[in-house]
Every structure is written in C-alpha cells, then in structure tokens.
Design brief:
The complex is a heterodimer of chains A (about 325) and B (about 325). Chain A contains twelve helices and 14 strands. Chain A has about 325 residues and is of the alpha/beta class. Chain A has two domains: about 220 residues, P-loop containing nucleotide triphosphate hydrolases (Rossmann fold, 3-Layer(aba) Sandwich); about 80 residues, Alpha-Beta Plaits (2-Layer Sandwich). In chain A, the strands form three sheets. Chain A has a six-stranded mixed beta sheet with strand order 6-7-8-3-9-10, sandwiched between helices. The longest helix of chain A is centred in the middle third of the chain and has 16 residues. Chain A is elongated, with a radius of gyration of 24 Å. Chain B has one domain. Helices cover about 70% and strands about 5% of the residues of chain B. In chain B, helix 6 runs antiparallel to helix 11 and helix 10 packs parallel to helix 13. The chains are: A alpha/beta (about 325), B mainly alpha (about 325). Chains A and B meet through helix 2 and helix 3 of A and helix 1 and helix 8 of B.
C-alpha cells in the first residue's frame, strides 16, 4: 500500500452539449499495480480515458500524473504516460521503426537504442523495418505497445487492449502486462469484458452511466457480493416454500443476477436462492426430512460480472 | 536526439509529407500538364507564322485592328469593350517601343503560364497538400498519438504550418523550374533579358502610361514568383484552417476546391457586385496587376488585394490555432 501514486483522478466531470457524459469519477492508480477500469460500452470509459491523456478537457475535476496536472502542465505530466487510446493508431505508410522514430523525436531522452529495445520487448524485431500496412492486427497492437513504452513511462494506459486479439493473444498480453507491473509500472486497463479483467487486475473501478459504482480489490469486491445457490428440487413449490420459511431470499428474476453460462444450465425445477454457502448442509437435511427430493445443489462462485449485474440491476454489459 | 524540439517536430512532418507522396503527385501533374500546354502554344505560334509571316509587328497590328473593330459592335458587352480598349492601348505601347509582347521562348512561356496559373492551377496544387495536413491525422486516428506526447498542441500545429510553408515554396519554385525546362525544349531556353513593360495604371478604360517602364524578363519572373508565392501561402493557410476544422480529408478538399472555383467564376462574371472584392477567391490573380490586365472588380489594386489576402490568412491562422489548442478529440 505504500507504493507511490502515479495517477490521481479527482471528481472528474465532463459535459458535452447538455449531457453529462462523466458525472463524478475519482480513483487512483499506484506504481506496480494493474488497475481495471470496467463498465459497459457507453458508460463514459473512453471519455474518462481521453481526459486522462489531455485529449479532452474536463468540465470539472482534476487529473494528476506523478503530481503534475495533465491540463495545466501537459508537457511534464504526459512525459510519464504511455497510452493506447482505442485502436493502436500508427502511420501505415511508414515502417514500424520509422513510426517509433517519429514518436521518439517528440520525447526527451529516447534514442535509437531505446527504439531497438522496445521493439525487442514486444517481439517485433523481425518485422520492425517493414511498412506498417503489411502488419496484422496483432502486430499493430504490439507496435502500439512499443510506442507506449518508448518514453519509459510510469503509467501505462491501455484502452480496451484485448479488442481484436485471439484467445492466445489475450493470454500473452496478460502475461506481458503482469511483467510490466512487476517492474514497477502502474497500469490502467479499461475493458467492457469483465471476466478478462478479473484474471488480470489487482484493483478495479466499476463505472456505469458516468459514475463510479465501486472501487476496490477484486477479491474484496467479490466477497461483498452476495452468494447464490441453485437448488434443483421436486416438488419445486414445496421445496421453495420451505426455503422461504427458513428466511432465505428466493430470486424471481434470475437472469438479472446470473451469468448466461449459469442460466443455460438451469432446469425447470431450479430455485435460485441468495444465501451464504455455509448454510447449505443444514438446509439440505431439513429439505430431505420434509420429503423434498434434492437432485442437485450448485454453489455459484461470485464473479465481477455478477457483481456488476447486481449493482446496475441487469444493465446489459455489451 | 537532443536537437531543438521544434526542429524535430518539423523533421517529423517533412518525413510524413514525403512518405505520403503527395508532393510527387504535384510534380507528376506538372510534368504531364506543362508539355501539353507548351505543345498547344507551339501549335498556336506555328499558326500565326503561317498567317502573318515572321514579322511580329503585323501580328500585333492585326490584333489591334480586330479589337478596334469589335468596339463598334452592339453585341459586345460594355464591360468587354473596356477591357479591349485597355488591351489596344497596351499593344500600341509595345508597338511604339518596338517590343514584341509575345517574344517566343522558354522564359516567355513560363511568364505567361504563371500569369494564367496563379489564380487557380497553383492554388489547387497547394490546396491538395494543405487540406490534408491536419485532417489526415484525424482520419487515421494518429492525432491521438500525436497529442498525447509531452508537447504543447500549438507547437505541433506550428510545426505543421512551417512544413506546409516550406512545401508551398517548393511547389512554386518547381512550377517555375519545370515550366522553364520543359518549354525550353519547345521554344529554346533564351529570353531572360527580353524587356517586359509593367506599371500600366488603369482608370476606367484609359491607360496611364506615365509610370510604365521596361524590366528584363528575369526580373519580371522574380516579381511574379513573389506574388505567386504570396497567393500560395494564403491558399495554404486557408486550406490549413479547413483541415483543422473539418475531420475528413475528403470534405476539406471539397470545401477548398469549391471556394477556389467559385472565385474563378465570380471573377469572370466581372461583377457589378462590388463588395465581392473582399472575398479572398477573387483576389488571387495578383500577377495580373503586374501585366496590367484589368482587375475583375472596380477599385481593386495590388495593394488592396495583398491586404485582403493578408487579412484572410491572418484570420485563418488565429482560428486554426484557437480551435486546435482548445478542441476535444472525441473520435
């Protein structure tokens, strides 16, 4: 916890036209941690990220990178930031190396040696002297990351980095990002795919409709989230009445709180109960004693996605 | 890479401009079109020699007579009659001083070509480069990478502007050089010392010749180059502004092209709408003031046109920098 704060966002707001796109966003990213910025498309993620790198001027609030205000002192603040905003955009009529040279000329202290170094880091050394228009999407992504790392940043911002990558690519990217964080880089990763981020991030902020709903460690957030148990009972009505009589809340609209994958496996006799897992054995024996047949009991491990569904009341993720 | 930041930024822009190959397209256009014009001119010259023999005086005399005859006709608009009267007086001046107004040669061709090219052809070439310089970064999304560097936005825009000015100069220079080199193949490379008259003062249909003086053609070319460059800079700065304001390169090219062509149409209408003279597009024919060709609208002088163009350029620069440094990059 003693790590240096590399990014501090305070009460960030943005109004475009008459609409508040970002209502009140505050969080911080520390050195050496991977911070997930999660929310559905249209929640204000991209607008927030653009405010972090001075592409959009906030209506209110402040963004500080290593203590420097991005709006007031962009020359100092942005020297600590490497970013890919949305797609890894580079000049397709130049070679990978020429692209990196372009960006190197705009930053102090980046020489040819560093260009070679970052292109090796992302594994592009073989193709670095080819024109970018001959690159695959994955290679462009690597070039984008090379570009972001060029200036030896303290904060790396990756906006939807897994877009367009295959599962293998995503796995490689995860390992790569982990490695960077271990070297002390603070990494901010935004995504609308919560399951992907859960495996990667130390802490997350969940954003919906322009406001932050929760910030914290993934493990802590999930612990706060209610557990669910799916009972397969027959006769269903009798079993359900018994559960309710024991003071357990039965969920009517399971689709609002559970993943699609779980929903698909449910039978007609399923009853979804919101309850801690430790109560299962006791209930099981009382159900059996009452003559209700229990054909299956599933304990659902809470996920970020489920937590998100709970907080937003079934707002769609995509 | 410890050079000054601005030099590095300009170097970046130069590399992008060259690698995008727009400038080669401009050179290619010149290399294709100039020989066509030169060939047409040569055909015309051959025609005249057939008609009038090798004596240019007969040709000029004939032109004077033709124009004088048309003055009597009711079918010629008053406006045109005025122009023709001016033309006649100028031809007479050339005749009296025993100077051929259309001495064939590579240098004369270059001079005439640039007179004709300065208000539309060269602006179009320059616009092709200027309209693209900011909007292409937006179209490709690279603006995001460019503006997230630890560099102030105005510095980035300034480096683009300086690069554009360098290319404007290069285009004007290459137009002169290509014209001279190619037309020389047709007409010979001589004629630098041939005299050209300049300084005709026009008032209505009268020509005041008191200030007229002969300058050697090479000097005339330099004066022309200066004026064409000024036109080029103005058009470039306007295209630059459009390029900042409009996100798509295609849209910004269309906007500039439409206004340039509108200018040439308006000039030809020899407008009785006097306030049109404050539009930049009708002021692009700066070299006409040198040659003594009447301005499209009453009351326009070289000084006036320079001032109008200068004001438009200054305003465009202010708008470009204000918008570029303040604007939110939303897409």
């Amino acid at each position: 916890m003693g790590a240096e704060t590399v990014l501090q966002v305070e009460h960030l707001k943005k109004k475009i036209g008459a609409k508040w796109i970002v209502k009140d966003v505050s969080f911080e990213v520390r050195a050496g941690e991977i911070f997930g910025f999660l929310g559905p498309n249209g929640a204000g993620k991209t607008t927030t990220i653009r405010m972090l790198v001075d592409l959009i001027r906030p209506t209110e609030g402040s963004v500080r990178v290593c203590g420097f205000d991005v709006n007031r002192e962009p020359e100092r603040a942005l020297a600590f930031v490497g970013s890919i905003v949305e797609n890894p955009e580079v000049y397709s009529y130049l070679t990978g190396f020429e692209n990196l040279e372009q960006f190197a000329r705009m930053m102090p202290g980046v020489d040819r040696k560093r260009i070679v170094e970052v292109s090796e880091m992302v594994g592009l050394q073989e193709r670095i002297h080819d024109k970018v228009k001959t690159y695959s999407l994955g290679m462009r992504q690597r070039l984008g990351i090379a570009q972001a790392l060029l200036g030896r940043p303290k904060l790396l911002i990756l906006d939807e980095p897994t877009n367009g990558l295959d599962p293998k690519g995503i796995k490689e990217l995860r390992q790569f990002i982990r490695g960077l964080a271990e070297e002390g880089l603070g990494v901010l990763v935004s995504s609308h795919l919560l399951s992907e981020i859960q495996l990667l991030c130390d802490r997350v902020a969940i954003i919906s409709r322009g406001s932050v709903l929760a910030v914290g460690k993934v493990s802590e957030l999930i612990r706060e989230s209610a557990g669910y148990v799916i009972w397969e009972l027959s006769p269903k009505a009798e079993g359900r009445a018994l559960l309710e009589a024991s003071g357990i809340q039965v969920i009517e609209r399971a689709e609002e709180v559970l993943d699609d994958a779980v929903l698909a496996g449910m039978s007609a006799n399923s009853v979804v109960a919101q309850m801690p897992g430790e109560d299962v054995p006791e209930l099981l024996s009382s159900l059996v004693a009452a003559g209700v047949k229990v054909s299956a009991v599933h304990k659902i491990n809470p996920t970020l996605e489920q937590l998100f569904l709970e907080m937003t009341g079934g707002e769609t993720i995509e | 890479m410890n050079k000054s930041l601005m030099i590095s930024l300009i170097q970046n822009e130069m590399i992008k401009m060259i690698q995008k190959k727009r400038f080669y397209v401009v050179l290619l256009v010149l290399l294709v079109l100039v020989p066509i014009f030169a060939y047409a001119q040569m055909k015309q010259a051959e025609d005249k020699i057939e008609k009038y023999g090798s004596d240019w005086r007969r040709e000029v005399q004939q032109a004077i007579t033709d124009n004088q005859n048309s003055l009597g006709s009711d079918r010629v608009p008053e406006e045109w009659k005025k122009y023709r009267q001016i033309y006649i007086q100028q031809l007479k001046y050339y005749l009296e001083h025993d100077v051929n107004p259309a001495q064939p040669g590579g240098v004369s061709f270059t001079r005439e070509f640039l007179d004709n090219a300065s208000s539309l052809f060269i602006p179009l070439l320059i616009m092709g480069i200027g309209s693209d310089i900011v909007s292409s970064e937006r179209t490709s999304g690279t603006i995001k990478v460019l503006l997230t560097r630890p560099v102030r936005r105005w510095k980035i825009l300034l480096s683009k502007l300086i690069t554009l000015m360098m290319f404007v100069s290069l285009i004007v220079l290459s137009t002169f050089v290509i014209c001279y080199l190619i037309s020389g193949l047709f007409f010979g490379y001589r004629g630098f010392d041939a005299p050209v008259f300049t300084g005709f003062q026009l008032s209505g249909s009268d020509v005041d010749v008191s200030a007229v003086h002969a300058v050697p053609q090479w000097k005339y070319l330099f004066m022309q180059a200066g004026l064409v460059w000024f036109v080029g800079v103005t058009v470039a700065v306007l295209a630059f502004m459009v390029s900042v304001l409009v996100r798509s390169t295609a849209a910004s090219i269309v906007i500039m092209m439409a206004s340039l062509i509108a200018g040439s149409i308006l000039s030809n209408m020899a407008s009785s709408w006097a306030s049109a003279k404050y539009l930049f597009m009708v002021n692009l024919g700066l070299t006409n003031y040198l040659a003594g060709t009447p301005a499209p609208i009453e009351g326009m002088t070289l000084g006036f046109s320079l001032a109008v163009l200068g004001l438009w350029a200054a305003a465009s620069l202010v708008v470009s920098f204000l918008v570029f440094t303040k604007q939110d990059i939303l897409h």
